[in-house]
Amino acid sequence: MITEYTEICILCGRPRTDKHHLLNGRDRQKCDEDGIIIPLCSVCHREIHKNATCEKLCKIAGQLAWEKDFYKNGNSGNAREKFRKKYLKSYL
Fold first, then answer.
1. What does the pLDDT average to over 56-79?
2. Helix axis angle, 79-87 relative to 52-72, nearest 10°?
3. 6-64 tens-digit pLDDT
4. pTM of the model
5. What is the pLDDT of residue 45?
6. Are 31 and 21 in contact (CB under 8 A)?
7. Cβ atoms within 10 A of the Cβ of 62, count?
8. How many whole angstroms separate alpha carbon 52 and alpha carbon 29?
9. Which residues are CB-contacts of 91 (< 8 A; sequence separation ≥ 6)?
10. Which value, in Å, is the radius of gyration of the alpha carbons in the chain?
11. pLDDT of residue 1 exceeding 90
12. Cα 21 versus chain centre, distance
């Protein structure tokens, strides 16, 4: 997960009931593997999916977190290009 606080909603602080994959569709399994997930309560999760701007910002945040971890884990090279190859798209 993107945060170390996995048992509370990242937006409102209520107990986590859901996890939100920051990249959706065919990339859910990759998100699970890469930890591109945030903890949410069911109310905040529904609200994110209703708001196109929130959805887009989630994708941007997910890519930025992935790129940060790419370098943090000692990798070298162009993180953005590696992300593009893995997820077939860049949100930045």
1. 94
2. 120
3. 999 999 999 999 999 998 777 889 999 999 999 999 999 999 999 999 999 999 999 99
4. 0.87
5. 95
6. yes
7. 26
8. 22
9. 56, 59, 60, 62, 63
10. 13
11. no
12. 5
Q: Take residue 30 and report the two structure tokens written for it.
A: 């990759």
Encoding tokens for residue 52?
A: 């196109």
Q: Which amino acid is at 35?
A: G
Bridge partner list, 19? 39
Quickly list DSSP for the chain: --SS-TTB-TTT-SBP-EEEESS-GGGHHHHHHHT-EEEE-HHHHHHHHH-HHHHHHHHHHHHHHHHHHHHHTT--S-HHHHHHHHHS----
